[in-house]
Fold each of these.
Amino acid sequence: MSTATINDSHAVGHHGDAHGHDHHHQSFITKYIFSTDHKMISKQYLITGIIMGCLGMGMSLLFRLQLAWPDETFPFLETLLGKWAKGGKLDPNYYMALVTIHGTIMVFYVLTAGLSGTFSNLLIPLQVGARDMASPFMNMLSYWFFFLSSVVLMSSFLVETGPASSGWTVYPPLSALEKAMPGSGMGTTLWLVAIILFIVSALLGGINYITTVLNMRTKGMSMNRLPLTIWAFFLTAVLGLLSFPVLLGAGLLLIFDRSFGTSFYLSDIHLNGVGALSNSGGSPVLYQHLFWFLGHPEVYIILMPALGISSEVISTNARKPIFGYTAMVISLLGISFLSFIVWGHHMFITGMNPFLGTMFMYVTLIIAVPSAVKTFNYLATLWKGNIRFTPAMLFAIGLVSMFISGGLTGIYLGNAALDIQLHDSYFVVAHFHLVMGSASIFGMFAGIYHWFPKMYGRMMNKTLGSLHFWLTFISAYLVFFPMHFMGLAGVPRRYYQFSLIPEFNIWMDVNIFITLAAILGGIAQLLFLYNFFNSIFRGPKASKNPWESNTLEWSTETKHIHGNWEGDIPTVYRGPHEYSRPDRELDYFPQYEIGDGEPEHYHAPATAPDTSYDGKKEKATTVFFSSFAHLFSLRRA
Amino acid sequence: MNTILKLTLKFTLAVVIIFSAATLISDSVDIQGISTEHLSAEKPWVGADEYQYDPGQTVTPEKTLSSKVNWAILVFVVLMVLVLANAFDISKYTAKITGRETVNQNNVNKWIMLFFMIAGFAAVIWEYQTHGAMILLNDSSSAHGVDYDSMFTITLVLTTIVFFITQALLFYFSFRYAHQDGRKALYYSHNNRLEVVWTFIPAVVLTVLVLRGHQTWKSVVYAEDNYNGKMHSIEVFAYQFGWKARYAGDDGIMGNVDYKFISGKNELGLAYKPEVDSLVVDLKKQIAADEASIKNLNTTILDGLMADFTAAENLRDYKNMESVQKEIDAVKNGDRLDELKASIKRKTKQIERILAIQNDKKLFASTFTSAAMDDIITQEIHLAKDSLVTLNFRSKDIIHSAWLPHFRAQMNVVPGMPTKFTFRPTKSTEEAKKERGEEFEYYLYCNKICGVSHYNMKIKVVVESQEKVNEWLKSQQPAFIKREMAPVAPAIMNDTLKTSTDTIQKMVVR
């Protein structure tokens, strides 16, 4: 038994392992600030992500106020924003800035760094059985680049002309020309610097995640025994590594255009108050191609970790093996590959050749197939389970619901013909907030509730957690569902005010309703914040494996040590989802437990109807995995 | 027996809650004959100016209805929050008393799952009926819009079915298979046949959608290929923050344009020699002024600014002081000098490029034709009903997007890259007014974030008979000449305009 192994080798491990000593002599700075321990770095990512999340959500509430009550004044806004809300009414330029920075923060700082950064850092070493990341120092750099990037981004609020305000996609020429809008001055420069720092952080992190997963798995942890979380983090890192450099290129060219007079994106422009610009020969559409070459994989960079987390959480709490592990992995691989060749569906009506539009439509709708497979597998996992509604499980179920609702509208938007009308309407806002925003943030919450005991050694309050879930879930639907209909009625996104146009003004009641629902959602997050920070200090002490889970991270002690395991790293004997095996008394069978000679997978007698399977297909999948493993020569005995 | 009784009780409770919620909603729907005073008294948070765009208009029943329903939903949500909070509170106390907690909360969550599913589906159906009635569907004002709407309907039906099935399974499974003591989950890790089935079914459905989508897309983007009737083309010009339309004049040919020719009197940059010449003169004057500024920057200009500052200081006009101080700083740290130098460079380049066109005989002849003189620039777009029109888009400054929601038409307007959208309007403004009310007008909206007034950048679109369009065009003033002096006078807006489509492709002269 693993516990026995750990106890036996305790003394040996303590001396034999170089990592074992460090934690005794750490100063405050090396432990909490410039820490190279992946668990501390993951907490740093999480706390920074939560702070950025609060800021991002706060901004959305501010501009929701404007949309709901365009003719009201809110004196507190002037107190808060000064000259940007003279007399308590939000300035149109600042509205744009809030929309832009809200998008940037949520996409990059919360859902990329806050989600992937937190859980990749925490779980990759713990779940593959490594003492730390491949390069702990690079890992530390990754966090500090992210932190610096956050500071630079937020500092743009202190600039006189305001932060970047040309939308989170910062399309040139609007973002390239200082005179086109105030936010395109210093604000956009800071935005670009922040994003470049962010890309550096993402790349440093990504290389580390990939290396750790490929090279540092413990004995017995073959690729087909990896928890789905690790598969998701691994593929996410690959996506990031291949796509972020393209955004870096796009950003650098934009900096050249802005500051050094080049014309990559500029041509034939006559700007009010300036006159005809000398720039000639560039193409604004080039930027859009480069941006969305990152931008689309980015959607999956955000979503896949959430899907991985929910797979793990659903399997654990339904007390069932995740249904179709192989199909889940293949789906992830399929999504990862396809995500690189669908970027054009953001550009159907940019004047791109219509034939190209056709091709992008085909591949975009193909990507719905692996997504559908994942959904059905989640449903099959819940079927005949023994579901424990922990807050994490609730959020994971919520994720599946959001993933379905938001995913289905993707079928409309991926269709070039339908996109003519839906492009940049509220329908798009509803779509991506459900499938990418809500689903991913639900995955993040699921992760936080599930691994909180591992991060802080204490339990979060379950009741508050459930309440938080239901309020967030309901308010998310109330906010985003009606937006579909607004979009279908022809209401454009990024409008500062709808009351000037009668046809949009009839949605005023709905706008008010949405804002009220958003405020409800904001209040619900206060419950979470209280629960989170209160539990860090005053939550009940957690046991070693509070969710009776199978994966490797629950074999570590609750108290964090540098190097993770006191003694030898445990060996892995089976896949991560062996729950409720009929040949075992307990309903879970940890990966690190030797057992009494049970087979790796339980095979029911052939007569049992429910578990019948196709022998041939089974062989094919085994071949698939072994070939994959041989390809990287990674399989360990 | 006991468990069945308990289940029935709980189920009844859930049904009662749902019904009372439904009654609450339907009750509020019934109240329609409500007076305006009452409404404004009830909605103090709306603000008096909300309906200012049309003060004469009384509040329509729809408005009353939806606002009432909003309130009902809000009350409903608050009630639900209270119920939830209560339920969890009870579970907390029972947990304290009995020392057991998990089972209780699990049951609460399980029942909320079911409740959420039923209430959620009811809400979705309500949304489809209420807000679904407000969407643009099956009322298209263009020919391809009919295809579009049927494509949309197919997708809507399919996705709605999938939505209800998958969500129902998700919440039903969550409810049905909630934890019970002593029960073990079914160990069922995979079934490859099942995987194949549910890979295959979506793949087939999506293939159907993709093929149908491909057809629709082709019919929209290659609209002119299979069309033999009348064709027009109009240039739609976008700038911060407005739109202009340009029609070929009496000669039926669109004149050439170039962004370098844009000036105060020549907003669209038409290739009209006298205007371009005066632009060059203007530019030269501006360069001279800039040069003079550079010369006097540190002497008279700075002194003047200092004097302004002192004056403002004496008046304690802090706002003015701040702005003057900024200018003084700009002069002192060299920013103003850089600006002036850049401005001179930019203008010199512009003159150089204009002269390059003028000095090249061939280019000059092909650019400065007489076609531009009688082009008509308008503040509205008038389209002839039932004839195919190509809108050729051109942007003056940054990316805009021309969206005509009622025609299911949208295209980005990109500086330096000509784009177009071809469609056939089939419903005149008059007919649309009959359907949508007297105040209704077609508009073309900007739908790409473009700056501070993005939210109010629109141009009126009028669809009427060919004769009326012609009449309207006659009443408009050509850009640079009087109508009597028009070069040639073939019938305007007829088949000959088809040739001008080619001209427009060569529009952007470098």
Note: Chain A touches chain B through 144 residues (CB under 8 Å).
Amino acid sequence: MKKKFGELNPEKKHKRFAGKWQYGEVLFGIIIVSLLILGTCWAYIEKQELLEIDVPNQPPANIKLQQLLHKPDTFKVSYRKINQFSQSFFNNWNASSEEIQYQVLSGPDNMDFDNATGVLRWTPNIDHRGTQIIKIRLFSGKEEKILSNIRPDFAAVVGEGYYCLFPAYAIQTPDTVYETLIQFPITVSSQKHILGTDVMGRDLMSSLILGSKWTVLPGFIVAFISVFLGAVLGGIAGYFGGHVDRMLGLIAQLFAAFPSLLIIFLVAAIFNFNIYLIMIAIGILAFPQIALTVKNKVMVLKNRQFIEAAQELGLRDMEILWKDIMWYNLRSMLLSFMTYGFALAILMEVTLSYLNLGVQGKSESWGNLLKYGREQMYQGQYWLVFIPVVAVLVSIMGFYLLGDGIRKLSMVEDAQYE
Amino acid sequence: MMLKLIQKMFFAVVLFFAAGILISVLLALVPDVYLDQTFTERFVSNVTVFVNFDYSHSEFGEYTLMDVILNRGVNSFSLIIMSLGCILLIGIPLGYFASMRKHVFFTSYWEKAIHVISSCPILIWALFFNFIFINNHILPTYDSMLEAHGVLKVVFFMLPALTVAIGDGILSDVIRMMKEATDKASTEEYLRVLRSRNVPVAKHLIRSLLPAVGSIISNKITYLIGGIVVVEYVFNWKGLGYQILSSISTTGAKNYNFVLGASVLLVGVVVFVHLLSDLATILSDPRIRTSQKI
């Protein structure tokens, strides 16, 4: 028979969706889900140990100042792993240290500054965790031109095992060119913290692990409620029609007219920002879409021949609906909706916590990490936002890929049986 | 046809009142230690304010509630209109070309790329844009907008509007819906006849797609309004969403009457856009217009 244009070869039909990618998607999703569950378990069991903050005693840290050519109106921010950086320290050095003198205006208490070499020695201890601000005044009586072109680009804490960052921060060129003020924060953390520390000196990795507990249980609440209500009401509306169908249509239209984020805000205020109760509301708000999809699927399936055969055999309607339609034909779709529910829950938790409406206090939810890291982001400590963002994106993507993979694999099975 | 139009309008009014009553119920449930009223009293007072449209009392110093709602509303609705513009300028043409240029090798790839880009949440896009453009002073945001003149104000809207338009899968949804609508419309019989007679079909096809564009906009306006709340907070944009957030959250001053007024305004806009889309569909499609079925 001549094949029509655009028609796929029926013999190769089952190969349309089959491929390694679907298994990869499911595998990736399963890995992400397992990591989140493991993180949650760990967060509940080992909370005290994870929260411990430690800055071990290390050899003294040295801080030097470097001059680079001045570019007006630009503030370059640089972050470096100091152990690698200290050797290439004197590039672009235009003025010798004799021409410029330094005066430390403020800094940590046990800091020691050598005026001749411009080396600052400082051993951070447990009290210095977080951000320390050091103010240094540069002045010279000899060369006016040099100082007018100064743009400090910092600098180093060189201590074995210390990562430090040096945003070249707000150099103010004064009216007179004889002096200038440098002010920059130094964040103390040690190699023990793989992803660095936040502004309070807490380990970011531990915070991420602790934050994963706000993804699993809320996600399960949203997924279960939305899929349960969607399957029950959508199934009944699709199979029997009638009042349930009409009610479902009205609810869907009412929810479609209402920006759901506004309802969630009000619900959050009603339940005093309890994240679990908010998630119940999100589940209820999410169910009409699922119910409508399920309804359409059920309406298509109930006209198929195997349903007619089941009815002829005398099976009860509810049995046909739940067993033949829902369980045998729609379970993979419902399962993929559950994974989307998890993704929605993570997204809502992050958004609400960021907007001060979700997890309250200084708990380590991912949204709170973003919220507290945002101010630091402008000072150059970008990883305080970057790493939670990556965690959020990877988990959302993991859940989406898991759902998509499950769906496509079931489609492969369907195509093979047809 | 008139019966259909009246039915749609009646339904929109009912929906608007239902939404208003839902907001009143929710606001009456919000615990407030400063108000010594029962749930029923608060509900009745909320409904009274909603039905009478009485926002003349003052809770913002010398300004009435209506002044504040209108002042903030101008900023928010400018943002919504700009983001709708982004969707119309980016999403709709891309969806159209994705359908028309299906056989082109790159089409599926850029579609997938946009899908991945667009599925990133609005909050994260907003943070990203904030970090790249505002931190480096490349593009301005709200702060100095009042000093700008005329068309230059558009520059201030670019980042927030673009963020709302592409985040949370809105752009990829629009492209997908437009592609499906174009696919469906381009296989109609009358277009095949036109093609067989060598008549250019683009004009007829685009005309038949206009109701689809309307339905896409009415579908997405709810998401856009949800999105601007987040974007206004991140970009420090003084609009309705920003004010609603600070009226509800733990750190801001509580002001539930403002929440009622602003929510009713936003819901009203959504219902109005839905109604316009329905009416446009009825008026433009002769099959629906002339059918006897209601």
Note: Residues 252 and 258 of chain A are 10 Å apart (CA to CA).
